[in-house]
Design brief:
Structural class: alpha+beta
Oligomer: single chain
Organism: Gossypium harknessii
Shape: elongated
Number of domains: 2
Distance between the termini: 38 Å
Strand order of the largest sheet: 5-7-6
Number of strands: 7
Order of helices and strands: HEEHEEEHEHE
Pfam family, one: DUF4283
InterPro entries: At4g02000-like, DUF4283
Helix content: 25-40%
Protein name: DUF4283 domain-containing protein
């Protein structure tokens, strides 16, 4: 996994990946720009398993951190013309989960019929997909 993820992410400053057990790994990025790009680019998977990120604070034990939620970019199609605002993006995001961010460039362009919203959602202990009958 170490080699595959490092090759996929191409970190400019490098990355160290340590296996701490219990299916948990610590990724240490040596450049903040690399960290931001990888985390904001999530979700990532490895062998069809979702990688859930948590920014460890000083003294925090990686084996004690609850890894229950992850962030996703959600695309909202065909909102009415007046809905391309930050306030509406926040409402959509909070309806889906917890609003994190939105793609200002997509909204400012005004040429698209969709908006990108980043939300913290999805309790990974439960299935994301629901079957429609």
């Amino acid at each position: 996994m170490r080699t595959v993820m490092a090759n996929l992410w191409h970190p400019l400053g490098g990355v160290s990946i340590a296996d701490v057990g219990e299916k948990r790994f610590v990724f240490q990025f040596y450049c903040e720009m690399d960290f931001d790009r990888v985390v904001k680019g999530a979700p990532w998977t490895f062998n069809n398993h979702l990688l859930v990120f948590h920014h460890l604070k000083q003294g925090e034990d990686p084996l004690e951190v609850d890894l229950l939620y992850t962030e996703f970019w959600v695309q909202i199609y065909n909102p009415p013309h007046g809905f391309f605002t930050e306030a509406i993006a926040k409402q959509f995001g909070d309806f889906i989960g917890v609003f994190v961010d939105y793609d200002v460039k997509a909204i400012m362009a005004g040429l698209r019929n969709y908006m990108w919203i980043r939300v913290k959602a999805v309790n990974i202990l439960f299935s994301v997909w629901q079957t429609r009958t």
